[in-house]
Design brief:
Length: about 200
Amino acid sequence: MNNRLIIVGAGGHGRVVADNAVKNGYKNIAFVDDAAVGECEGFPIIGTTGILKSLDDGKTDFVIAIGSNDNREELAQKHDVNWVVLIHPSAQIGISARIGAGTVVMACAVVNAGASVGKHCIVNTGAVVEHDNIIEDFAHISPKAALGGTVSVGKKTQIGLGAVVKNNIKICDNCTIGAGSVVVKNIETSGTYVGVPAKEVL
């Protein structure tokens, strides 16, 4: 952990990430954002994403605080900087769990034993990632979503607010699971799925 942290994205998600960062001990925090100016949560917005590489001095950490899975992927692939993991102190992380660079784990979330969370994911407030889950890069597990044991979530898939995924389920890349939905069967085609049980929106 370096002393300085640059947060990419000064929207609502960025504000929550800043709180996470403060609770991890960062004191020198700044934002970059392609639209916002001024400050965010009392920390300065110092420029746009175009300056990221110039800020990478070997003494600075970086994290993307943007909810869009596509946008996080684009930024991560474009900018080769020191992306770090941020885990809120109230989160519970299994000793054999693995979490990839750039991922943020928010307050009261759980990532249990044997789970693997990829790069630049969001495990949001109060989400449960049970044992032996595989969460691929750029996925988003929304607040209060709950994944049973041995669930696989594909790249850039979002599990919506309060959604539930039954154990031993596989969900492919580029899916959106609607808020409050319940997934009881494997999902093999990219798309949006809602309801109890979850069905594709055509």
